[in-house]
Specification:
This protein has 72 residues and is mainly α. It has one domain (11-70). The protein has helices spanning 11-23, 28-35, 40-70. Helix 1 crosses helix 2 (28-35). The chain starts with 10 loop residues before the first helix and ends with a helix.
Length: 72
């Protein structure tokens, strides 16, 4: 199988990725083996990119909550 580092993750890959993270206890090699469509490096990078994205969302929500509290 040819792996493309530029290809977006499909909805099915995202769903399976999330399930496998739990099932494989964040063991990226096991996730890669079961996912079958991405390399180890892609799986690991995707995990850390998603984690960074979630942190930014949480920070944004916290800032908005703080701003709304200040204006009350």
């Amino acid at each position: 199988m040819i792996y493309s580092s530029k290809a977006r993750w499909t909805d099915e890959e995202e769903r399976l990725f999330a399930q496998l993270l739990i099932q494989c206890q964040n063991n990226f090699r096991e996730v890669t083996k079961h996912l079958g469509t991405r390399t180890y490096g892609q799986v690991r990078s995707h995990f850390y990119n998603k984690r960074k994205e979630q942190r930014l969302i949480i920070q944004s929500i916290s800032i908005l909550q703080l701003l709304s509290f200040i204006h009350i």
